[in-house]
């Protein structure tokens, strides 16, 4: 990438060829932009190369692609006075805790009440950083996943954080409660992950055009019908932990409505535990640790957040039954 904030030079690598089948997929991944947005740039002559290129085809390895991204327009999301727990903040970034049940950014069906709406209220100067519809957002957590997230407040910091995530040079630890007691004590899960061929809401392992996904896991404790698991991400694919636990270990996350069957989960647990979780609509998955080197100040940052009350209540109950 070049030094100019809105001009980029992308060199197509062999790894890109192994992972993608189209140039727009490569650019979307490396620039954190949508393919529809890149298509508009291409039509306007803002995506060029010294040789002829097409978005729907992969150019040869070594091809340099020049992308000029116009200054971001004002965000379409509106600021909303939503309570937001901020663990750290400076002029470049903020570390926040996303509550369970909150969507990360506006999308069809969830245009208000999102983390972005809350951030726009708490960080007044963040509009226009990154994607216009997702100002400041560098990574995301599923609606049902709680935990620590970093938000960029400047374009330079946004680019630096994107580079950290793409290089996997960031520590991300999660904890989950799995509806299985047969998980190995620890291990490394590796596959590709892509859109499920028959259910567009789900992801699946080893599908065509899937992207490499790596999850390291360790069982913290086995209980009668459940396991408390710590997971460290090397990559950050959509639904990665949920897919890996359910499809590679046959141990989906407790109360996961997409990769498990909550009604079946409730039948497998103690009646007293059932009373605690029966109205809970989300997987028991929490992003507990986020650590990285600040892309601007080079300070080492490390943040840990305990799980939500109901998550902890389940663990306390399981401990009490030992």
Question: What is the count of distinct domains?
Answer: 3
Strand content: 25-35%
CATH topology name of the largest domain, in short, is: Pseudouridine synthase
Biggest sheet features: 10 strands, mixed
* Terminal CA distance: 55 Å
Q: Quickly give the structural class.
A: alpha+beta
User: For the record, what CATH class of the largest domain applies?
Assistant: Alpha Beta
Order of helical and strand elements = EHHHEEEEHEHEEEEEHHHEEH
Radius of gyration: 21 Å
Tally of DSSP β-strands: 13
At CATH level 2, the architecture of the largest domain is 2-Layer Sandwich
Which whole number gives the mean pLDDT? 90
- Number of DSSP helices? 9
CATH superfamily of the largest domain, called what?
Answer: Pseudouridine synthase
- The unreliable regions are 1-5
Helical fraction equals 10-25%
* Outline: globular
Give an overview of the whole structure.
The chain has helices spanning 14-19, 23-31, 35-43, 115-122, 155-166, 240-248, 262-268, 271-277, 309-320, and strands spanning 7-11, 47-49, 64-68, 85-89, 93-98, 146-152, 171-178, 186-195, 203-205, 211-222, 227-233, 285-293, 300-304. The chain is of the alpha+beta class. It has three domains: 7-68, Roll (Structural Genomics Hypothetical 15.5 Kd Protein In mrcA-pckA Intergenic Region, Chain A), CATH 3.10.290; 85-167, Pseudouridine synthase (2-Layer Sandwich), CATH 3.30.2350; 173-287 and 313-320, Pseudouridine synthase, CATH 3.30.2350.10. The longest helix has 12 residues, at 155-166. The radius of gyration is 21 Å and the shape is globular. The N and C termini lie far apart (55 Å). Mean pLDDT is 90; it is low at 1-5.
């Amino acid at each position: 990438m070049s030094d100019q904030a809105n001009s980029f030079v992308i060199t197509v690598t062999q790894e890109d060829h192994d992972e993608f089948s189209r140039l727009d997929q490569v650019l979307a991944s490396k620039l954190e932009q949508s393919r529809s947005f890149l298509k508009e740039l291409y039509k306007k002559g803002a995506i060029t190369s010294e040789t002829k290129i097409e978005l729907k085809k992969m150019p040869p390895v070594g091809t340099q692609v020049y992308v000029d991204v116009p200054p971001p327009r004002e965000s379409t999301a509106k600021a909303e006075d939503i309570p937001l727990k901020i663990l750290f903040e400076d002029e470049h970034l903020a570390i926040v805790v996303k509550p369970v049940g909150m969507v990360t950014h506006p999308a069809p069906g969830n245009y208000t009440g999102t983390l972005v709406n809350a951030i726009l209220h708490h960080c007044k100067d963040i509009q226009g950083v990154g994607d216009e519809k997702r100002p400041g957002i560098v990574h995301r957590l599923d609606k049902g996943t709680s935990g620590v997230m970093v938000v960029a407040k400047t374009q330079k910091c946004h680019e630096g954080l994107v580079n950290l995530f793409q290089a996997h040079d960031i520590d991300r630890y999660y904890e989950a409660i799995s509806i299985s007691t047969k998980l190995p004590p620890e291990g490394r899960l590796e596959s590709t992950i892509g859109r499920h061929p028959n259910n567009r809401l789900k992801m699946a392992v080893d599908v065509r055009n899937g992207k490499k996904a790596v999850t390291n896991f360790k069982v913290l404790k086995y209980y009668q019908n459940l396991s408390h698991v710590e997971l460290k991400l090397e990559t950050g694919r959509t639904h990665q932990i949920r897919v890996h636990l359910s499809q590679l270990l046959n141990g989906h996350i407790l109360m996961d409505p997409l990769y498990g069957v909550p009604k079946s989960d409730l039948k497998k647990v103690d009646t007293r535990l059932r009373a605690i979780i029966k109205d809970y609509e989300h997987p028991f998955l929490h992003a507990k640790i986020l650590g990285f080197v600040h892309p601007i100040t080079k300070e080492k940052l490390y943040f840990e957040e305990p799980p939500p009350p109901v998550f902890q209540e389940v663990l306390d109950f399981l401990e009490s039954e030992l």
